Amino acid sequence: MTLTKRGEYALRTMIRLGVAEWNKEGVISVSNIAHQEHLPFKFLEAILMELRTAGYVESVRGKYGGARLAKPMNEITMGEIVRLIDGKLAPIGCASETEYEKCSCPDEEHCGLRMLMIDVRNAIANILDRYTLHDVVEVTLRKQELEPPKKKVVKKTARSRHADPADGFLALLKTGKL
Question: In which band, very low, low, confident or very high, does the pLDDT at 52 lie, cut at 50, 70 and 90?
């Protein structure tokens, strides 16, 4: 599975719309979402159209128009959004449940790589399908309350920050800090 920029932007957009709903902000303009999330406007419009067509987002026209969630947050899993935008969750086609592709392996049924990739797919699917948009919005807002926004510091290194396992969604839920 590869989460494309399109998939990442769709998830960030859904979380932003979820935060807006949580805070009773109403309809959020597309330009406001693009600005707050640092997303290209035209790209965001295309993503919102796809989310709207699938029934996750509503568009409101007019001077005070924009977008809002069309479904309750607790009825939207993160896995649904990833599959909608990026397709299969499996890292290789022969391990996919929804978009199976025959591989070049001479004995697919006994292939160790395929079995491993099925486990990878299952782990990804279990996490993405376990958590709803409501869960992610709630954790996001609780973390924001605990930690004020950090000032941006621009470092002149190739990698200014690594992905610390302690920053993960599951890690924060397990530690009880949130």
Answer: very high
Residue among 155, 154, 178, 157 at smallest CA distance from 166: 178
Given a contact cutoff of 8 angstroms between Cβ atoms, the answer to whether 126 and 118 are in contact is: no
How many whole angstroms separate alpha carbon 148 and alpha carbon 141? Answer: 11
Nearest to 147 by CA among 122, 128, 166, 133: 166
List, in order of start, the domains of the chain with CATH numbers: 1-87 (1.10.10.10)
Q: How confident is the model at residue 152 (pLDDT cuts 50, 70, 90)?
A: low
Q: Return the pLDDT at 118.
A: 86
Q: Give the global pTM.
A: 0.80
